[in-house]
Write a structure and sequence with these properties.
By secondary structure, the protein is of the alpha+beta class. The chain is built from nine helices and 16 strands. β1, α1 and β2 form a beta-alpha-beta unit. About 5% of the residues have low confidence.
């Protein structure tokens, strides 16, 4: 395989018609800039891991994900099933194309700026970034399993918003509208879960709305987190009243969530041990994990993968 030839995984937005137009625009830019590439289109979210492994095993060292947070998450999980020798050769880049592009936005990459993104990818400025992980028990098989994340992990409220967001999107169509509708539904449902976890020297045993572990900004919940400092940021939302919950949502959108009195923040280099979640929903990078139950351990692999960043 030619070292400069890209492997591209195109992940169409789910539920969006005429997705080929988006790819045609990107392909036109790639051709105009003389990029040598081969591309495969995912048949659905589950196929991304398989396609990632296929491209890596066939010698591609630059692999570009045209997708959102969830597609990037699956690609990283596919990469990390391979031998270390393969992983160290591969550099991953992203062209935003998803319902959630939070990790791309952290690097200043936008869905409406494809040409600028492709120019940055061509320069291939590679930085090693941290990868978070969660280990837990498969409730169906009883076996231990591990999933990885580059942006964030959520247990509770936000993971439920993600789950409801996909359902309301099918009915309402617009992403922003479905997101707000999901949050309104969560206000009505008021999901609090009894959780027990250990962070640094603290032990928490109480009802919580949400636990967020951020390797990146994580939808504003861990605004100081960066994926290259060897630390995880954690925000814990306690059981607020309705008024306090509405205030918290306002602070979330202004990037000041940590100022809320019901939010406690941590920074850690140690693994986080989670003993109880009362079957709370778990999500990584906006992707809901099925059949995950405690005991769970959340930790960090510093400088673990190569990522192409803007110049």
């Amino acid at each position: 395989m030619e070292i400069n030839r890209w492997g591209i995984i195109y992940c169409p937005k789910q539920g969006v018609r005429r997705t080929h137009k988006r790819w045609e625009r990107i392909k036109e830019l790639l051709d105009a800039k003389g990029v040598d590439f081969d591309f495969v289109q995912s048949e659905g979210p589950r196929s991304v891991e398989r396609l990632m492994k296929m491209l890596c095993q066939n010698g591609y060292e630059t692999i570009i994900i045209v997708g959102g947070d969830s597609a990037l998450n699956r690609a990283v999980n596919g990469l990390l099933t391979l031998d270390e020798g393969v992983r160290k050769k591969v550099a991953i880049g992203i062209i935003p194309n998803g319902r959630g592009n939070d990790f791309a936005a952290f690097w200043g990459l936008r869905e409406d700026a494809d040409e600028r993104t492709i120019d940055s990818l061509i320069q291939r400025r590679v930085r090693k970034i941290d990868v978070g992980y969660i280990r837990g028990i498969n409730s169906e098989t009883g076996e231990e399993k591990t999933r990885y994340f580059v942006n964030c992990l959520n247990i509770g409220l936000v993971a439920n918003i993600m789950k409801l967001k996909y359902k309301t999107r099918q009915i309402l169509g617009l992403a922003t509208l479905s997101y707000f509708a999901s949050m309104i539904l969560m206000l009505v449902q008021r999901l609090e879960k009894k959780m027990r976890l250990h962070i640094n020297e603290d032990s928490i045993d109480k009802k919580l709305m949400n636990v967020c572990v951020g390797n990146g900004h994580s939808y504003g919940q861990t605004p100081s987190a960066v994926p290259y400092n060897g630390c995880l940021d954690v925000s814990i939302i306690a059981q607020p009243g309705v008024k306090q919950l509405v205030e918290g949502l306002g602070l979330l959108f202004t990037g000041k969530l940590l100022n809320h009195k019901d939010v406690k923040a941590y920074r850690t280099t140690r693994p986080i041990h989670i003993e109880e979640t009362q079957n709370a929903t778990v999500s990584t990078d906006g992707r809901v994990l099925k059949n995950f139950q405690p005991p769970m351990v959340v930790g960090l692999l510093p400088e673990h993968i190569n990522f192409i960043i803007p110049s």
